Amino acid sequence: MNRQTRLKPAGARTVDEITGSRRLRRMRKADWSRRLVQENHLTVDDLIWPIFVIDGKNVREPIPAMPGVFRLSVDLAVKEAERAAKLGIPAIATFPNVDMSLRDQTGSHILDPQNIINRTTSAIKAAVPEIGVITDAALDPFTSHGHDGILRDGIIVNDETVEQVTAAAVLQAAAGADIIAPSDMMDGRIGAIRDALDANGFQDVAIMSYATKFASAFYGPYREAIGTQGLLKGDKKTYYLDHANSDEAIREAEQDLAEGADMLMVKPGLPYLDIIRRLKDEFQVPTFAYQVSGEYSMIKAASANGWIDGEKAMLESLLAFKRAGCDGILTYFAPEVAQMLKG
Ligand code: PBG
Question: The pTM is what?
């Protein structure tokens, strides 16, 4: 049986009849018209650059799982902050790789006013005061088990962790941090940090809440960068959000705003664009995404293999955050994309 396809059935409507002459391709026909109707734009003002710091002098250690990203000693971190400021990047977020001998069960070294986070902050603020410095008060770089909180009898204890994170946040503010961004997901940390900052005269230090931080496989390369990969036993599911949940993310964000968060963050980024959009629609507050290490490394790895165009994938992923409703993005691509936007 040979069934003949009829390309144009008798009496078929024309395209103009089907579309009512509404042809959306008209505005896509040329570069000038595409530019004219472009809804979202990425600029250097959208970028926050996360950097890794390590003890020593003139150290620039490659991180194999994150091609193009380095652990920097404080002196070089200052140089990079200067470069970032020249490129127009508004802020830097610092993450430390802490010497193993300084890590313990409770992450006590986070309470040393002279620890590497605080030394980095004061060095950057002294040399490049015009760039914003964002610090994390989570304990994971400082604990011998790689968890973000204090571990007692197999449990990450909430309230004791909040006390420690809060004290750390005050020390970070004293060192010059402009924004405290606690990533530990303990209950009550935002309110406790706000109270402590205010009580110590740091009313102007803002809080960016990692309000919706999901238990995720995309943090892998970061754990190599700060050396928690081999330490971490179990997972972080008792404190990070279940990545199956969306309503719970709204509730977390609502709670953090009520406690005094100035800005919200969603982490990871690209797999959670739906959460970003929901938060922006719900709260209309400054909302950020963290394009995490695994997202960065996937693009870099595929690009290194010639499987995708790395530059285009980078720009497309960053613009997607803007479309989803982000005011800005924490991204390891920051200097690369800032350079590109400049040129
Ligand atoms: C933990 C923390 C994580 C990241 C930054 N701080 C996640 C984790 O190790 O569980 C991830 C950042 C990234 O992957 O780029 N407080």
Answer: 0.96
